[in-house]
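Quick one, C-alpha cells below:
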C-alpha cells in the first residue's frame, strides 16, 4: 500500500478543462430544450453560411467571367485604336505628300506661265524691232531718194520740178506703204497677241479645271477622313464610358472580394466554433455515455436490490410466527424504499432517454 501512495503522489495532477459556455451556461447546466434550440440555431446558421458561401462563389465566378470578357474587349478596343491611329498616321502622311505634290505642281505651272509670258514678251519685242528696222530702212531710202532728187534739181529747174513732183509722189507712196506696213505689222502683232492670249487662257482654263477637280477630290477625301475621325472620336468616347463603367465594376468587384474574404473569415471562425462545439459535444457525449453506463449499472444494482428485497419480503410474509405490527412497519419501510428506488430508476431512465435524444440529434 505505501509504495502505491508514493507513485500516485509523484504524478502531476491533470489540469481541469475549462467548460464551453453556451449563452452564459455550460452544457451540464442547460436543459434538453435549450440544447435542442441551440442545436437548431447552429444548424440554421450553418445552412445560412453555406447558402451565402454558395451565393458568393457564384457571384465570384460571374465577376471573374465578366472580368475576363471585359479584359478581352479592352484588348480588342486597344488593338482597334492602334490600327485606327496607324491608319490616321498613314492618311496624314499621304495628305502631306499630296499637298507637297500639289504645291510642286503649282510652282511648275507658275514657272511655265512665266516662261510663256516671257516668250510672248520676247516675241513682241522681236516683232517691234523688226518693224523698227523696216521703218528705218524705208526712212533711209526716202532720205536717199530725196538727196538724189535735190541733186537733180540743181541741173535744171524743170527737171527739179518734175523730179519734185515725182519724188513727192514716191514719197507719198512710200509714206503710204510705210503706214500700210506699220498698220499691217500692228494688226499682225494684235492677232499674234490675241492668239497667244487665247492659247494662254485655254491652257490656264484647262489647268484650272484639272486642279479644281483634283482639289474637289482632295476636299471630298478630307471630308470623308474628317467624318471618319468624328466617328472614331465618338467611338473613343463610347469606349471611354465603357472603360469608366468597367472601372466602377472592377471597384465593386474588389469590394465584393474584400467582403467575400471577410465573410470567409467569419465562416472559418464559425466553422472553428462549430468544430469546438462538436468536439466539446463529443467529449460531453462520451462523458454522458460513461455516466449512462454507470447509471445503467446503478439501475441494475437497484433492480437486483429491489428483487432481493421483494424476495426477503415474501419470505417474511410467508413466516406465520411474525408479529403483525412489526410486519406492517417492515412492509411500510420496504414500500417506501421501493418507491424511492422506483423514482430514482425513472429519473435515471429519463436522463438516459435525454442523452440518447441529444446524441441522435448531433449524429444526424
Amino acid at each position: 500500500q505505501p509504495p502505491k501512495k508514493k507513485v500516485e503522489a509523484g504524478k502531476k495532477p491533470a489540469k481541469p478543462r475549462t467548460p464551453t459556455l453556451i449563452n452564459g451556461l455550460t452544457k451540464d447546466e442547460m436543459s434538453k430544450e435549450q440544447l435542442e434550440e441551440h442545436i437548431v440555431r447552429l444548424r440554421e446558421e450553418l445552412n445560412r453560411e453555406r447558402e451565402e458561401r454558395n451565393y458568393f462563389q457564384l457571384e465570384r465566378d460571374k465577376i471573374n467571367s465578366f472580368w475576363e470578357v471585359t479584359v478581352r474587349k479592352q484588348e480588342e478596343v486597344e488593338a482597334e485604336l492602334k490600327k485606327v491611329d496607324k491608319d490616321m498616321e498613314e492618311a496624314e502622311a499621304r495628305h502631306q505628300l499630296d499637298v507637297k505634290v500639289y504645291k510642286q505642281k503649282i510652282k511648275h505651272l507658275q514657272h511655265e506661265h512665266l516662261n510663256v509670258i516671257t516668250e510672248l514678251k520676247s516675241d513682241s519685242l522681236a516683232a517691234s524691232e523688226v518693224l523698227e528696222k523696216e521703218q528705218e530702212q524705208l526712212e533711209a531710202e526716202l532720205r536717199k531718194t530725196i538727196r538724189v532728187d535735190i541733186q537733180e534739181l540743181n541741173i535744171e529747174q524743170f527737171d527739179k520740178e518734175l523730179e519734185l513732183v515725182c519724188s513727192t509722189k514716191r514719197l507719198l507712196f512710200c509714206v503710204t506703204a510705210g503706214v500700210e506696213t506699220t498698220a499691217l505689222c500692228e494688226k499682225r502683232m494684235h492677232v499674234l497677241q490675241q492668239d497667244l492670249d487665247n492659247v494662254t487662257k485655254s491652257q490656264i482654263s484647262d489647268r484650272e479645271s484639272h486642279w479644281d477637280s483634283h482639289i474637289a477630290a482632295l476636299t471630298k477625301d478630307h471630308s470623308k477622313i474628317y467624318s471618319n475621325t468624328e466617328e472614331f472620336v465618338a467611338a473613343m468616347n463610347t469606349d471611354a464610358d465603357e472603360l469608366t463603367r468597367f472601372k466602377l465594376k472592377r471597384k465593386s468587384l474588389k469590394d465584393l472580394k474584400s467582403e467575400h474574404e471577410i465573410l470567409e473569415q467569419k465562416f472559418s471562425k464559425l466553422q472553428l466554433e462549430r468544430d469546438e462545439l462538436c468536439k466539446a459535444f463529443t467529449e460531453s457525449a462520451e462523458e454522458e455515455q460513461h455516466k449512462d453506463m454507470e447509471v445503467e449499472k446503478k439501475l441494475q444494482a437497484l433492480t437486483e436490490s429491489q428483487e432481493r428485497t421483494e424476495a426477503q419480503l415474501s419470505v417474511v410474509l410467508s413466516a406465520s410466527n411474525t408479529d403483525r405490527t412489526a410486519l406492517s412497519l417492515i412492509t411500510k419501510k420496504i414500500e417506501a424504499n421501493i418507491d424511492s428506488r422506483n423514482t430514482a430508476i425513472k429519473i435515471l431512465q429519463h436522463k438516459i432517454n435525454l442523452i440518447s435524444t441529444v446524441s441522435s440529434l448531433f449524429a444526424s
